[in-house]
Structure formats: C-alpha cells, structure tokens
Task: structure prediction
Amino acid sequence: MKKIYLLAAIAGALTFSSCGDDFLSKDPQGVLNKEALENATGVDLLTIDAYAGLTTWTNTSYSPYQQSPLNWVFGGVYGGDANKGSDPGDQSVLNEVELYNTLTTNGYVEQKWVWVYMESHRVNLALQALAKADDMNDQLKKVREGELRFIKALAYFEGIRVFGPYIPYVPADNEENDPNIKNDKDIYSDVMADIEAAVAQLPETQPEVGRVNAWAAKALKAKMLVYQGKFSEAETLLADVINNGKTSNGLKYGLEDNLNNNFNALTENGKESVFALQYSNAANDTGNAAFCLNYPHNSGPGGCCGFYQPSYELVNSFQVDKDGLPYLNGEYRNLPSVSKRGGKGDPIGVNDKTIAVDPRLDFAVGRYGIPYKDWGLPADDWVRNPVNGGISIPKKHVYSKAEEAAGMKAFMNGWAPGSCMNIEYLSLRDLILLYAECLANDGKTAEAMAQVNIIRERAALPVNIITLPDGTPAANYKIGLYPTSHPAFSDKETCMKAIRMERKLELAMEGERWFDLARWGGDYMSKELKSYVDYEKNYITKFAAASVLSPSKTMLPIPENQIQLKGSEWLIQNDAWK
Result:
C-alpha cells in the first residue's frame, strides 16, 4: 500500500533547464530534460513526486518539522492542545510561538510557506507534462489531472489555513522558476476551481489505496466550504459523503469501533480514513519526518525528543459531570486537576482517580500510571523536562511495540524517530462533526446533536476503555450521550458549544485546534486562548510571559524573509502583522 511513493527519490531528482542559444543548450549527462517527461512514464513519475511531497522532506535547506500538511505546531501548540515540551533551548524558535509572541522572522512559519510553494511547483510540473503527453488515453489523463488538482488544492488550503487567503496562487501553466505574482487577491476561487475539477475527474475507487478518489475530493471541498462560512453548501455535500462515500479501495465509510485502528500502521487505510498521508520506511529513510521530535524521550518508544506535550488545560477539559458529559462553559478550570506533578518518591505525574474523565483522554494523552499503548506504564525519563513542558506525553501518532516488531519503525537521517503509520488528513470523525456544525448553523439542533452522539457512542465502546493488567479500568472513565432533554437539542448557542467541545475532545492532538478557533472568529479565538494561558500558567510558570493573541491575528505572518526575497512590490504583509 506504500508502493506509489517509492519512486519519489527518482522524480525528486529531476532538473529542468533551457537556454535561448543552441550552443548553450547542451543537456548535461545524468539529468532528464523537460521534454523527456512529456509522456505517460514521465507523468507517472511526476504525479508520484507530487504525492511524495505530502510526506517527504521537501527542501533540505530547511528543517522538516513544518514541511508537511500536518500542523502539530500551528494547529496543536498554537491552539493550546500542547506545550512545546522538551528544553527551553532546544528549537527555541518555538518558544515565541507557544507564548503567542511570534515574530515575522520565525523559521517554523517560513518552513510552512516554503512547503506550500514547493508542493504547488511539483504539481505544476506534472500538469505541464500531462498537457503534452500524447501517449496517454483520455481517461487516464483525466484521472491523473484530478489527482494533481486535489494535491494542489490541499497545498493551497494549508497555505490559507496558516497565512490567510491573500497569498500568491501560481497557475499550472506558469513555467517560471520564480514567478512574480502578487498577494493582492483572495485566492479561494482559484483553489475551489482546483478541487471542483478534482471532484469531476476522479473515480470512486483507485487501483492503489494511497491515491485520492472522488469522495475524498468532495470531503476536502466540503471542509473548504465550511472554512468560508458556506454552511448550507457544505451540509449537502457532507451528507452525501458520510452516507454514500467509500475509500479508494472500496470500503464504505464508517467509524472504526476501536479508536486505535486509526493510529496504527497494522490497521491503517480503514473505513474511517478519507485521505491519509502514506508513510513508509523505504522512501529516503524519512518516515513521518515532520513528527520526528514528538516522541517520548530516552527509554520511551522513539527515544527522542520530548516535544509536543499535551497541556494541562487539554487534559482537564476531558473531565465530565455526573452524567458523563463535558463541561461546556469551562467549569473544569475551577476544579482540581485530574493529574498533578508528583512529589518526592512519586512518579512525575500522579492521577486523581476520583475524578471522572472521558475515556478519550487516555487515548489522546500519555499519562503516568496509565498503560501507554502496549508499552506498559511510562517511565520517569519519558518526559524530558516537566518544568518546561508538563507531565503528559503525546500518544496518538507514536508507534506501538507490535508495530516496531513488524518493522514499522523508521528513522530520519539515522537518528530521529519516525513511523510508517499513516496519518489521516481527512477522516470521517472530522467530517461528522463538521456536518453537525453545519446542521446547527441551519438551526437543526436535534439533528446536529444526533451526529455528536454518534461520535460519543463510539468512544464509549468497551474496546476504547484502557484497562490495567488485572482487567480493571485504568482511570475513572465515564461518558454519556446527550439526552434529548439537554438544552443543546433545542438551543442553538448551547448546541454550538457542545459541537465545539466535541471537536476539541475527539480531534485532540491532531493539529486542528487553532484552525477551528480561528475560523470561529477572532474574538472567540482570542478569548479562548487567553483562558488557556491563564490556566496553564498555574502549572507552567513560563506562561506568565505569554501574550494575548489579538483577535485580528486569525492568520500567521507572511515570512519576512520571503517578502525581502521577492520585494515588497510583490508580497505585502498582512495588516494584522505590520
């Protein structure tokens, strides 16, 4: 299932050159010229290269940590799901991000910008070759164009999510290595044209599971519509995808009973996976390079580097009331913490087992005293620096002992941990909650809460209750369905609160949180992040130096280095960051 990426190294090595004078236009040995790729074989190589750009280290001039569609920094750390973790001096560029003091010169911000345009460039090269390939039948050309237009839409959607819609859009027919295009217009119409073309041209199934199909394209289109506030259009599309969609290998979409099946290389590409980034330990030795810092430290699985530690605020938001329902008005912030720093002779973290919690807490977060997948109980040295990052450990993306035994562990450059575990960029759980949000926005609160209860019902299944070796629950787990008498079924405001909290819990540590906060409005985002910082500084003192993120900053700055390279006549900084 990883096959389609194994030729990435070949395609990635391609170099194109041309000169106006014949005596200067000798093709160097060992390099493919552009014309050599304008055929079926070349198009296939370039299409594989575009897919590979979603997963591999795109530009070695920059670090890999944000060169992907994954957003552990901008969605997770910036959204309050997690602290940076590790030591203060390691990747210190992240210190300003987690404390909302981000500068326009931030290197992680530039990494993301570079990835967007490198990926767009890969796609454009493939589309240009496709247009001139005469040895391909029309149907295959149609499918390949659909795949490429999907990848391009995904890349620019990521650019919009991080930098806002006023960024340059490079058309497919632009052959300049350094195109001069201004960021003076909203590019959503261009990106929507790409995804609509993908929907029209892609088949319902594919011969390789890693290739995108029409249903995934519809899902991405629906998510983009939600981000634009076009809820009615998105509602219709989401209903179609949820009820009728299927994976590229023909599985009807459905929630997995076992939450872990979505984060395990041995059970991946299942019915809940709408579009996944396909990782392998055979391609350039870079299994999920973007996450290579985010493993338990020292003796833990991966052994490095202690980043991306779940926040105290996230952990405590999993507390529930007597009915097993979440607190929708932040009441948990005034209750005792479910986990605290251990004293002398105690483990780093000690849990209060009298406090009832949603079982998804210990699926998303590694806590001391709770079995960590099949690795047993976490050891003290799994946390690198509890003063700087707290006492919790990331969990969803970390490989199990069984995966390691099956050869699913990978390393980047021979030292940094990685995994062959696919990461779901689009998932059914995300789509169901987006659908609930659309229904609630349209005043269909009862229907919206029925969708929320579908998510909660899955979470409550016995297979999702973590147990100790003696078979008893590892914590005081409690989760209930919202009864039809609950105000969320009839009051739109309460309904929206319930849906927003459900997204926080269900998608915890998946890099979505800040983007949700930002699209729900600048004032909402600023208020929620202030509450997060005010809470977190009770446990981690560095948050006393955090700033309040302005409501106007629903996007990150255009990298100053890119403005200087292009010139201010081409790139203009967002007003909020001037």
In short: Residues 468 and 474 are 5 Å apart (CA to CA). Residues 138-163 form the longest helix (26 residues).
